[in-house]
Task: inverse folding
């Protein structure tokens, strides 16, 4: 999972500092997610998946399909 976070960030030519700012945290805090030192809260996983236009399952290495799942339309 952690290499996917790094790869997605680097695909956007972003630093850890820039990614941290997107998530409202420090570079150090974000770095600990990429290295696996800290578990990633569900809310942050969802934010990362939305930001990178992928699914949480992809981030968690549960699938190799990058495209996000279609979301149900609100009724």
Result:
């Amino acid at each position: 999972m952690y290499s996917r976070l790094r790869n997605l960030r680097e695909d956007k030519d972003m630093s850890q500092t820039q990614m941290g700012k997107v998530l409202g945290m420090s570079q150090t805090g974000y770095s600990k997610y990429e290295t696996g030192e800290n578990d990633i809260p569900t809310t942050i996983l969802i934010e990362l998946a939305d930001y990178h236009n992928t699914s949480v399952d992809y981030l968690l290495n549960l699938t190799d399909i990058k495209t996000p799942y279609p979301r149900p339309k609100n009724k």
